[in-house]
Amino acid sequence: MKFQSVLKVLSGLVFTFPSVYAKSQDYARHLELSLLFYEAQRSGPLPASNRIFWRKDSMTDAGADNGVDLNGGCNDAGDNVKFNFPQAGALTLLAFSAYKWQEGYKEAEQWEYIKDAIKWGTDYFIKCHTGKNELYGQVGNGSLDHGEWVAPEDMTYEHPSYKIDASAPGSDLAAETAASLAAAYLVFKDDDPAYAATCLKHAKELYEFADKYQDTYTTGIPDAQGYYRSYSGFKDELVWGAAMLLLATGDESYRAKADAIWDYPYNKHDPDYFLNSGGPISWDDKKACSYALMYMVTGEDKYKEQAFNHSDLMVNYKTTPGGLWFDTNLSAWGSNRYASNAAYTVAMVASTMDASDAKRKQYVKFIQKQIDYIQGDNPAKVDYVVGADPSSPKSVHHRGSSGTMNAMAEPPFNVFPLYGALAGGPDGNDKYTDDRTNYNSNEVALDYNAAYTGLLAFLIQEGLNVPDPEQTWEGAWPPKEKDGEINLKLNFNGSNEFTPTVSTTGGLTCGGWCVEMDLTSTGATLDNVWGGELLKQEGNKFVACAGWGKGYLDGKGTEQNFYFRVKPNGSMKEPTEAFVYCNGYNRGDKYLVKVNGGGSEPYGWTKGICKPAHICDANGNYIKDSGVINKSTSGGSSPKTKTTTIKKTTTKAAEPTSPSSSCFATKLGYGCCTGCEVNYTDDDGAWGIENGNWCGIPDSCNKEPEPEPVKDECFATKLGYDCCSGCDVNYTDGDGAWGIENGNWCGIKDSCSSTPSTKCFSEPDYPCCPSGTATVYTDESGAWGVINNDWCGISA
């Protein structure tokens, strides 16, 4: 890197005083960590490239209560709810920063990761857009979820899904989602134009929905009222969404939409008054970023005045004694978040200015001061980014990371590192306490990291990055696998009761544990389990998990126990082995344990140097792109280079996964994939990943594409959409019946809609279904379908 000469000069000084000051200007390293936080927040089925070892699939039936697939997206904060309004706001800031400060991401080698983070969110938002005027905006019930303290993988309570539509609209939610998709279009338009076009199409539709049916989204989703109510109303999102679409399309009609609100003579005390904002942007308030963006797009004076007035206000705002931007009311909860938000719009405006401009230098100095404060240049000498420094918070308010059954439970520090999370921050006097129960100072959330992440890219692009020395302290990224053992003692009383104890050694810690035992060959049957949770039982096999307060295994040999009783059937033999799940049944590593000190070994997985194993090579060197989901557009090294390191998790080279298949990879010493999913492409051919190993895409996958069907005529062509090839109806509005093919809306052809002249049995109580509607229920009346979430009768 170009900063190596600086590193050589500074490295000795940094190593000389490691405990005196935690401050860091390695914005690239912190950027990598910040994007890891978004990976830790993912919901749904996780990709094979997942880098967060303590995260597994969760909430995989999201939307099932309403018959829709709402997998994906991210949990909001330390809870397990997907609140789409703040999630969309965070994604818009991330996507815009990737568009505007792309070189910063690339210089930090995080370009593929920011694209993955954005696409994980936009894929989810596209799923949520289930009708032209229908958008799901939340999965999970806030009060129900916040009454529980469990990891997302261990959820057993309901997580209902909620939507807005024409009858209960939400302009704030729909317009912010449109803004995020329009910003994503700008990111992907060169690397993946087809996907970019899909994002833009949904953005346009959602903005039209937001503008046509105006209301606040909590009308349709009242459960969000107590968590993310839009106090600023929805006019700011309508301007923000219009500005982003103006940037993406150049369509002046969006400027007219923004100006209709901008120029309206609201009273200054009206909640919809748009100009002269006195505060920073937030998940709720989009006024200031709208000022900056409208000026960036047009360069006109009326927008410039608002953009610069607001930036000057932020730069000269009150701060803590140590220099953190601070508002007495707002900053009481998540001060680091608001300092970053205040600086983000200043960075937007600074990006329009000449490098020699004195005011620009003042702006950049302010931005850098806020980030440097967060990264350790503060009176508390704390780097507020989890996992960045030994001084970083260790007890942020986060269920999954805690590894405990209660926010106040032992241990007081989190068992699992939530790398990259930006902790809430200090009070107005720079005081900070690392306490899991204090969500004012130790909350983490999607919106906390959003502006901060973008500012890191901005500062790197400004040439201000100063690399830190290699981080070798215990707990630094990447996490290392422990070599400790799991011990299981049965402690049989010689009659019919066992008091098993579980412990770990060698620094192997477990945030929760379960024991799986099979009594079939013992000559006894299970009678009862207590002192722990009987998670499941199938015949003589059972799984018992840690009881309350017994979940943490400290790696120092401290024993935790439970009890079980059996019914002997004649002579009885003690079990000789069992499975122990370190970190719980649903997200833990499975070990085969020989009882009473016989040793333990991984079962069904291979231990590597790092955790998870695939993120490092055989020498423990971190593989920079090991977590990239889609390497097909990666500018990194070839699969051959990466393959030798990924294969460290196997004891021998992978055999061809399908002996009968043929592919180019066999000549290079790799197997052929069993499927056709492409993860990476280079000059050799298309590569996939199976069982943690690179494999070549079989020749049989490279079939000639099917010729495109001749386009049919239907009402949709006049509206800019294609006609469907089939007749399956997904949505109906005043224009006609719509289907979805290849992720895009299409119009149902006239030939599909020919119905008998006679009325169907369901009228007048329910309408007749359009032709081609699938049967979902049948009773004595006839066959029923569903259109627009209501029953309809299928004509015989």
From TrEMBL:
Task: Show the Gene3D superfamilies listed in the entry.
Answer: 1.50.10.10, Cellulose docking domain, dockering (3.90.1220.10)
Q: Which GO terms describe its biological process?
A: cellulose catabolic process
Q: What is this protein called?
A: Endoglucanase
- Note the InterPro entries from the entry: 6-hairpin_glycosidase_sf, 6hp_glycosidase-like_sf, CBM10/Dockerin_dom, Dockerin_dom_fun_sf, Glyco_hydro_9, Glyco_hydro_9_Asp/Glu_AS
Specify the enzyme's EC class, one word: hydrolase
Molecular function in Gene Ontology: cellulase activity
Alphabetized UniProt keyword annotations: Carbohydrate metabolism, Cellulose degradation, Glycosidase, Hydrolase, Polysaccharide degradation, Repeat, Signal
Q: Which family does it belong to?
A: Belongs to the glycosyl hydrolase 9 (cellulase E) family.
Disordered: annotated segments: 632-653
